[in-house]
Known about the structure:
By secondary structure, the chain is an alpha/beta fold. 44% of the residues lie in helices and 19% in strands. The chain is built from 5 helices and 5 strands.
Amino acid sequence: MGKVIMVVEDSSTMRQMVGFTLKRNGYEVIEAVDGNDALEKINGGQLHMIITDVNMPNMDGIEFVRRVRAKPECKFVPVIMLTTEAQEARKNEGRAVGATGWIVKPFNPEHLMAVINKVIG
């Protein structure tokens, strides 16, 4: 069984693209449509990484990362922000709540995989 990566993204198209890239590279994927959905699906499960959007309904990615970091089982799970947000202030906000990395959309599948391989091997 491969490593498990959660993809938190409100756009079904983007979720499918990221999921396809991950599955093609041997990862198991858990999909969530927003931060609330993701928190319910984490539920103590073993995650190796989380990839999340910033701009989502119900709970944005910054708040989601803040809540993920408050969960003891997720304190050290790498979190990559995959978003259209490119401003340094937003990146700093992400880092401040515990994001591990930041990739700006549209993403290049090879770049995404290079980041993942660097972070979790």
